[in-house]
Amino acid sequence: MNAKPKLLAISSPGGHWIQLTRVCARLEDRYQLVYAMPSTRFNSAATHQGHKLYSITDVSADDKWRLIPCALQVLWILLKERPAAIISTGAAPGAVAIGLGKLLRIRTIWVDSIANVRQISRAGRLIQHQADVFLTQWEHLSDGQQVLFKGAVL
């Protein structure tokens, strides 16, 4: 039995995923990591660097109809894995997880992508008041209360 609390790490593929894995690399000593990412390249029995990796439906602002299957998959993962917390670097799949996590009273952490230099991301703005911890990687975007700056991932 693993005494470490579980942390669900979820993001969109690409740059969001790269940032998420860099953040989580520093958390491996304290948490049992479980990953979720939209992909057709692996199945539900996949692993990422020795950690469980779930495939979920990708969703974006351009294909909102995919919110339902994505939400159902994320809900199933949350109920199956029972994580102590959820962390995401975005985009829409992470926002779905943060919203569902809040409903299930799971602690949530949003790390807005470093690519969002001028303003908080669209997904970040949607869940900004739902996330227990909301971090930006740009000091000028921090308000010091709801949106915090603790440094950049990259």
TrEMBL record:
One of its GO terms (molecular function) is N-acetylglucosaminyldiphosphodolichol N-acetylglucosaminyltransferase activity. The keyword Transmembrane applies. It is a single-pass membrane protein. The keyword Endoplasmic reticulum applies. InterPro entries: Oligosacch_biosynth_Alg14. Keywords: Endoplasmic reticulum, Membrane, Transmembrane, Transmembrane helix. GO terms for biological process: dolichol-linked oligosaccharide biosynthetic process. It is found in: Endoplasmic reticulum membrane. This is Oligosaccharide biosynthesis protein Alg14. It comes from Thiothrix unzii.
